[in-house]
């Protein structure tokens, strides 16, 4: 009888402990959800309109790279809309915008980009606006890419200078969760801005990787020993999260992808970007969950 009583008591205590743990987990989950919902988002998209999107120079039979970009942008805009819809109207104060660097010479492209600077707050928030954001981005970004491809005048990509002189002013606002999504193949090159300081540079090309001897099995040791990488920026970007999409290494070097990611990882870490991810150029259907998880989940 005594053993039966002890077993019953032990069973009751175990149930009580597990119940308490489950309640704690649920409370933590609810707190995280409430925190994510109440956050104000400031999402920036930086588009690399270099010849990586050229259907002549870099054709892809599975899906053209510019079409992949459009799919990624669709996922970003859907995540932004989804975030807005989880908030009460009076809580909404969120932003999304699109940038290039350098700006294209085509005035039409720049005009469309200005139209994609969206601010949604309690004064203009409506179901109609929230439901239109993704479609607006889809239509207007398609026009931008098609115009750039038609012009066939690719000036390169100066992402380094964007970080050095613009990112703090244009992509970071106090009181917001600041997210920068970069669409690039991972290479950085702009004809009008090439700086080299010993083993460091503000650009990265397949030629530079080969020139630095980073096309062999000991590439990692060489990067560490000779301090190869991007020229360090003095900015503190601890209030910025970065998602890099579309890495597309040259097929001539089996270590190219790892080298590109090592350059980016070192550079973003030096600028104190605490949360970042660097992803290859995959099909939009495979990237949709990754993009939305990054944007919608708090850390």
UniProtKB/TrEMBL annotation:
It comes from the Bacteria. This is VWA domain-containing protein. It comes from Flavobacterium endoglycinae.
């Amino acid at each position: 009888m005594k053993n039966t009583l002890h077993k019953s008591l032990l069973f009751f205590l175990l149930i009580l402990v597990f119940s308490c743990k489950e309640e704690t987990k649920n409370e933590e989950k609810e707190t995280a959800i409430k925190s994510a919902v109440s956050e104000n988002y400031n999402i920036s998209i930086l588009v690399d309109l270099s010849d990586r999107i050229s259907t002549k120079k870099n054709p892809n039979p599975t899906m053209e790279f510019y079409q992949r970009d459009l799919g990624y942008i669709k996922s970003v805009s859907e995540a932004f809309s989804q975030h807005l819809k989880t908030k009460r109207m009076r809580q909404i104060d969120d932003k999304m915008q699109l940038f290039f660097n350098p700006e294209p010479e085509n005035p039409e492209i720049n005009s469309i980009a200005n139209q994609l600077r969206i601010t949604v707050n309690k004064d203009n928030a409506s179901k109609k606006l929230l439901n239109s954001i993704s479609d607006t981005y889809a239509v207007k970004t398609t026009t931008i890419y098609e115009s750039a491809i038609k012009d066939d005048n690719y000036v390169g990509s100066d992402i380094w200078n964007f970080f050095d002189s613009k990112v703090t002013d244009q992509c970071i606002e106090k009181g917001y969760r600041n997210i920068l999504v970069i669409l690039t193949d991972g290479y950085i090159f702009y004809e009008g801005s090439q700086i080299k300081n010993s083993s460091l540079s503000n650009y990265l090309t397949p030629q530079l990787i080969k020139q630095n001897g980073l096309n062999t099995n000991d590439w990692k040791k060489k990067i560490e020993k000779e301090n190869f990488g991007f020229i360090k920026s003095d900015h503190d970007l601890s209030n910025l999260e970065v998602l890099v999409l579309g890495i597309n290494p040259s097929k001539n070097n089996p270590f190219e992808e790892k080298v590109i990611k090592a350059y980016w990882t070192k550079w973003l870490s030096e600028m104190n970007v605490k949360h970042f991810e660097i992803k290859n150029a995959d099909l939009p259907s495979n990237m949709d969950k990754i993009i939305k998880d990054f944007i919608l989940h708090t850390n």
